[in-house]
Amino acid sequence: MAWVLLVVAGLFEIGWAIGLRYTEGVTRLWPSVGTVVAMTVSVGLLGLAMRTLPVGTAYAVWTGIGALGTVALGIVLFGEPATVARLACAGLILAGIVGLKLTA
Question: I need a labelling partner for 6 at 20 to 30 A (CA). Which of 41, 57, 68, 86 fits?
Fold first, then answer.
């Protein structure tokens, strides 16, 4: 169950990272409110997952999910470059997440 909570926390991290883009410097009310809610849920679920998962593993996987999802959505939503080097680096993050999961 802790791993499920951690993955959901990572998804909410993607949500708040992308949400920040829509707040326009925290000047738009509803995108800012949604971003703060996503932040709160994300950190709360991370804390619950850390009750049973090792702190280093949980934090690294949480940030890794957030980083990969944000890179992917940046490419899809905002037309950010999808260069070979950028995708290879994202692949290394994914390898790290899988490695940490397998060794936890």
Answer: 86
